[in-house]
Description:
- α2 (110-123) packs across α4.
- The protein starts with 12 loop residues before the first helix and ends with a helix.
- It is 46% helix and 19% strand.
- β5 and β6 form a beta hairpin.
- It has helices at residues 13-17, 110-123, 147-161, 167-193, 195-198, 203-213, 221-227, 232-243, 247-263, 270-276, 282-293, 297-304; strands at 20-27, 32-38, 42-47, 52-59, 62-65, 72-74, 78-82, 88-92, 101-108, 142-144.
Amino acid sequence: MSYPTLLHPLHTHEQLTTLVENRTVYSLDAFELNVFETHRVAEQVPLSMGHLVLTTMLRGKKVMHLPGRPAFDYLPGESVLVGENQTMVIDFPEATDEAPTQCLAVAIPTETIQQTVDLLNEEYPHAEAHLPWHLDTAEHAHLTNTPELTGTLERLVQLSRDTGRVKDVLANFTIQEMLVRLMQTQARQLLFHNYARHATSHRFAAVVQYIKQHLADKLTIDKLSNLACMSKATFFRVFRQELGITPVEYINQERLAEAKRLLRQPLASVADVCYRVGFTSTAYFQRLFKQTEGLTPGAYRKRCL
C-alpha cells in the first residue's frame, strides 16, 4: 500500500536502500511514522528527515553520532530526539538477517510542535518562569523511555495502522500527548539526574535533592510543598503536570531503587531493607516491590546473590 508523503523525502535514500531491507511508512495529517529494519552491518550511514524526529529503538543496537556530542550506544527502551534538518550518522554493528535492527521514527511538523508548546505555556505554565515548556534536542536528546511515553508511542503505531474514518482526529490528540510525555520525560531527566546542578534555581530540583537525602525519613507533602514555597494542592498538581509523575510516586520510585541496591548485599534482610529506605509497612513494601519489579524482594535478593 502506498501512502502520501507528508514530510521531506529522506536525503540519503540511495545509501539507505542498500542497507534497510524494509522501510514501512505511515503518513497522517499530524505526523509521519517510519519503521526501519536493517539487516546487515554498516558504518557511518547519514540520515536526515527534514522535520524534528523522535526515534525509538525497538530491537538490536545502533551507535549514534549526533552533532556536538560523543558517539553513544542506542538500545531498546531508549529514544533519541533529532532536531529539524539535523543529520544523524548511524553505525549498525550487529545487524543480521536473523536479528535485524528495528527502529521507530516519528517525524512531526514544526507547526504541530509549536501549537502544543504554545498551548502548554499559555494554559499550564511551568513553576519556573525562566524554564518554559520546550523540546530539548541537545543536552537531553538521548533518553530512557518512561512507561507513559512508551504507551503513547504504542498508540501512535496502532493509529497508523487503523483504517477508521476518525483516525486523523485521534492522531492529532495522540501526537500532542506524545509531545507532552516527551517533554515530561526530558524534565525528569533534567531534575532526577542533575538535581544538584539546579537545586538553587529550580524549586523541584531542590525537592528532589531533599527526597534523595532523606529517603529513610517521613516525607510528607506538607514538608515538600513548603520547601517548594507552594500550597499543597498547587505543588502536587504542578509537580505531576511538569514531570508526569506524582511526588508520592517519585518517592516510592527512589525508595525502591535504593531497596534494590541494598537487597544485593548478602547480610541485609528484607525487613531491614524495608525500614532503611523509609517504608513503615513490610506488607506494603512487598506488594509495591512485586507490582513494580514482577517478583518479591526476597526472590529478587535470591536472584542477585
